[in-house]
């Protein structure tokens, strides 16, 4: 079974106030696991490797294989609706299940767990359309204390301060949770989000070429820099990300935008053929921009995978020269709470630990660990 004998997801050690400020045991397993397999097996393979956000990986893998076969997959309304709903669930799980567990100073998670159970997103007896139809009213009455469209309009006018004003005045478990993290607003982060989709016809083939380079998937770069990617970097509209607090708020804002009337169109997704037998697909998923690249070879039994590569959001965000690493390096070495808040704000989607001052940089030696074993995105 995948992951039975090796740590596929890896883990991350945060070393505040030090250089380097990040240690990682993550590895690029997909090329070795995929080589020689039937191309049709790739969606199931990546769904097993990347269990959280698996829907996005499966879609991107299938679209990349189709593009490599010379097809341009059509992103129809049904695909957008399915991706919207799956991403809503991912984001809501992050807010309601992971934030209470991983953010320092967060209130006990019982109230958020009850809110999660009550959400229409998982309500039995409803189909997907009914879940999405019920969501705005549930959010208005159980979470926001006002109509969803009014909340979104207020935040659109002031995305930096309005989420925190709402949190300070609100009584819902989510408002209380966000208010508990107001110290994150003082944790400055560099600004410079990944932006490949504005000029996709030029940028994505260039990225595809870089993805063939050994080691690129684990240490990506673009035009001499290491940008980050997340809910603040969407093609449909960027959100402020100059602090850990703004990045936390961006995840909340995106979750509510996905629940709103334009939610189907919020996340970009697409694919393109690169050359005969080669294809690329991309999708904006919960943690940022995901890219899959495949190269096929013919066989008597159908196309096989000659090469399969994935560039996950985590590799931009936990890059040793990236924005999270820079922010960690600027901290007091003893400030474990600030380090944890920064990590959750960038959302590495991998188990992390904060090294105590003076500790050797060895990610195999757990200190303060925050586990998220469900994925390796």
UniProtKB/TrEMBL annotation:
<protein>
    <recommendedName>
        <fullName>Hydrogenase formation protein</fullName>
    </recommendedName>
</protein>
<feature type="compositionally biased region" description="Basic and acidic residues">
    <location>
        <begin position="368"/>
        <end position="377"/>
    </location>
</feature>
<dbReference type="InterPro" id="IPR050867">
    <property type="entry name" value="NiFe/NiFeSe_hydrgnase_LSU"/>
</dbReference>
<feature type="region of interest" description="Disordered">
    <location>
        <begin position="355"/>
        <end position="377"/>
    </location>
</feature>
<dbReference type="InterPro" id="IPR029014">
    <property type="entry name" value="NiFe-Hase_large"/>
</dbReference>
């Amino acid at each position: 079974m995948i992951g039975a004998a090796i740590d596929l997801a890896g883990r991350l050690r945060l070393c505040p106030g030090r250089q380097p400020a990040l240690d990682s045991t993550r590895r690029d397993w997909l090329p070795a696991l995929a080589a020689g397999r039937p191309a049709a097996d790739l969606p199931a393979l990546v769904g097993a490797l990347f269990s959280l956000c698996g829907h996005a990986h499966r879609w991107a893998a299938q679209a990349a294989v189709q593009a490599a076969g010379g097809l341009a997959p059509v992103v129809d309304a049904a695909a957008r609706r399915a991706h919207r709903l799956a991403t809503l669930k991912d984001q809501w799980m992050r807010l309601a299940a992971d934030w209470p567990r991983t953010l320092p100073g967060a209130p006990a998670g019982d109230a958020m767990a009850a809110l999660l159970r009550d959400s229409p997103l998982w309500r039995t007896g409803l189909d997907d359309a009914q879940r999405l139809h019920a969501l705005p009213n549930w959010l208005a009455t159980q979470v926001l204390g006002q109509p969803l469209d009014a909340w979104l309009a207020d935040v659109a006018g002031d995305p930096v301060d309005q989420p925190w004003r709402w949190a300070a005045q609100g009584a819902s478990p989510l408002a209380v949770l966000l208010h508990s993290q107001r110290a994150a607003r003082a944790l400055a982060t560099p600004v410079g989000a990944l932006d490949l989709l504005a000029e996709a016809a030029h940028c994505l083939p260039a990225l595809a070429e870089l993805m063939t380079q050994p080691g690129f998937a684990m240490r990506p770069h673009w035009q001499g820099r290491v940008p980050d990617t997340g809910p603040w970097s969407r093609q449909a509209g960027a959100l402020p990300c100059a602090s850990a607090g703004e990045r936390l708020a961006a995840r909340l804002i995106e979750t509510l935008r996905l629940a709103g009337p334009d939610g189907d169109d919020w996340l970009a997704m697409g694919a393109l053929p690169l050359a005969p037998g080669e294809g690329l697909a991309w999708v904006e998923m919960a943690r940022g921009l995901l890219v899959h690249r495949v190269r096929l070879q013919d066989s008597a039994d159908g196309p096989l995978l000659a090469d399969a590569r994935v560039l996950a959001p985590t590799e931009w965000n936990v890059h040793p020269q990236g924005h999270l690493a820079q922010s960690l390096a600027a901290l007091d070495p003893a400030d474990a709470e600030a380090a944890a808040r920064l990590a959750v704000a960038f959302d590495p989607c991998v188990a992390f630990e904060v090294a105590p001052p003076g500790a050797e940089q060895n990610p195999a030696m757990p200190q303060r660990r925050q586990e998220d074993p469900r994925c390796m995105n």
